[in-house]
Specification:
The chain is built from 15 helices and two strands. It has 300 residues and is mostly helical.
């Protein structure tokens, strides 16, 4: 009946009880191919519920008009194209590229809490219904997700303006002080980006304030630098590389409909496992209580 409709009464192929549990890289790919239709449905649901955030990203994208004019002028001279058309094409490509990477690396606030919960269930092989459970998680995490979206938008605007300002001062003065401040600002943004790898998993797994979730996600970001770096390189390299060979609008839709299955799920899968191994370690179960009955008397 629709892309979100599944026959849950129909038995699946099941999992061999005696089969060894796959780990890491192999488990990740198994979870993708075993639930590929559900992944695509989840991606579409996530994209549709993220439309408002996508529009916000389009308008706050850090695309400097001065930089665009300078680069477009150079490209127009090299190719003999019209300067105005080159500026429009370059600006459009950069805006859609920014939206794509921001969605995959930062998420989209409230909808990403839903996405984190569903993908956590995928990783744990727990039963989950995309629409019903997804809407429940949207309602449960609406307040924190909405506030996080506002914080993210402010940080994008402030950080991009700060980087542009400090770098302009460095170009004018060639002072290493401004270059150092610019570098520190950039590194803070990188850590804040990696914090988004964990914050939604923490949000749907633990009760707590948004401040505590942000603080703990930053700690996870710092503690898992190599894996965070690898996920970032893979995501930006492949999803961003599509913009070199495809129309920017088409590349954007490929990234948000098909891309999350490989990139955002990789991030959520890694985060869920790190949180489980670090925080959700199994506690020792209490010993079973055994009662012996002897001639009508109970002895323990």
């Amino acid at each position: 009946m629709g892309i979100f409709s599944f026959n849950y009464d129909k038995p699946g192929k099941g999992v061999d009880r005696d089969a060894p549990e796959k780990k890491g890289f192999f488990l990740y790919w198994e979870l993708i191919f075993d639930r590929i239709t559900k992944h695509l449905s989840l991606n579409l649901f996530w994209a549709l519920t993220s439309i408002i955030w996508i529009a916000v990203l389009f308008f706050i994208a850090p695309v400097s008009p001065d930089w665009i004019s300078s680069v477009a002028n150079s490209l127009a001279q090299q190719t003999g194209s019209d300067l105005q058309s080159v500026e429009i094409s370059l600006s459009t490509t950069l805006r859609f590229l920014f939206m794509s990477e921001a969605l995959l690396l930062w998420g989209s606030g409230v909808p990403s809490a839903m996405y984190a919960y569903v993908t956590r269930c995928f990783a744990r092989r727990d039963p989950v219904w995309i629409m019903s459970d997804g809407f429940d998680k949207i309602k449960e995490n609406f307040k924190q997700g909405f506030i996080l979206s506002i914080v993210d938008a402010l940080i994008i605007v402030l950080a991009s303006n700060a980087l542009n300002f400090y770098y302009s001062l460095y170009i004018q003065t060639h002072s290493t002080l401004w270059l150092l401040i610019c570098t520190i600002t950039f590194m803070v943004m990188v850590i804040y980006t990696w914090a988004h790898f964990y914050i939604y998993q923490l949000m749907v797994t633990f009760e707590g304030s948004l401040f505590n979730h942000i603080k703990n996600s930053i700690l996870f970001a710092v503690a898992n630098l190599p894996m965070n770096f690898l996920c970032t390189v893979i995501t930006v390299g492949i999803s961003g590389g599509l913009f070199l060979v495809l129309n920017p609008v088409f590349a954007f839709f490929v990234d948000i409909i098909i891309g999350p299955m490989f990139f955002r799920f990789m991030i959520e899968f890694t985060a869920a496992r790190k949180i489980k191994n670090t925080v959700l370690k199994e506690e020792p179960k209490p010993a079973a209580k055994i009662t012996y009955i002897n001639d009508g008397e109970e002895n323990e």
